[in-house]
Amino acid sequence: MSCSEEHRHSASNCVTVKMASKTEYFKHNDGTKIQPIGLGTFASLKGDCERAVLHAIDVGYRHIDTAYFYGNEGEVGAAVQKKIAEGVIKREDIFITTKLWCHFHEPERVEHACRKTLQNLGLEYVDLYLIHWPFSYAYHGDNEMIPKDANGEVELVDIDYVDTWRAMEKLVELGLTKSIGVSNFNSEQLTRLLANCKIKPIHNQIEVHPALDQKELIALCKSNDIVVTASCPLGRHNAELRTPTFMYDGKVQAIGNKYNKTIAQVLIRYLIEMGTIPLPKSSNPKRIEENFNVFDFQLDAEDHAILNSYHTGERVAHARQAIKSKYYPFNVYSACF
Hints:
By secondary structure, the chain is of the alpha/beta class. The protein has eleven helices and twelve strands.
């Protein structure tokens, strides 16, 4: 799950603090490793995604996040194949995450869905395959991703995500994915899954930004050796309304000025220092570069206090179309705070 990130980039000169290298990867509970930042690709289509991934790889990104639902797996795969052919990377150098969509949750459809994704990507395996949401939709064909009932409402079905997970585990055994994980799972769902799995999830991808800091859920994930990837790291930008507040507040701009960094860079660095892996999305070459250039400074305690103060629990992605599902994830306190 990722979001649009059109945002303000401005900074003034100031001294920076030398920090950890981009090559210091996170190590997962299954021994695999991942770069501490990734390129998000939600809503990036019509060639923009391929161009963004090509440029990101040239810049140094080695972690790309996509999904079947995004409709751009083919563009991601084309870019990766081009950079492999050019000798810029080897397949083992790049970490590709994609996601199982909600209409593929019946256990007998999971392998088919993964193989279809691999066909889209033009790859023999993915590095990480996530359950995109814990709730499920009715299946009326591979391409009907938002099925509607006679009343025009999304057609939900009752499929236990634990059963879906067991089918996901088989994908690891088949070598179709190196690792598996979840996305948008709340604390109760994650705890229940951990009690009923053979293979632990290595990731929980959730929305994280200053307005939704998710500290309790992040702590739960860390205590179970699960990495948190932060989708929507910059919130959803609205220039007319000047929201989210943290993108426009002079206090955040002042932090950026202190380190000669943009507001976006400050926010991405904040999420890294929280122990998450942010997934900023952009198709703008300059912003792709700026979003990656966040490893040469460190926020101080005062900076963190300011950024912490924007927490309201307000989220960007509500998935209200699934609110009637018993597996809807945003009904427990620790899913939001």
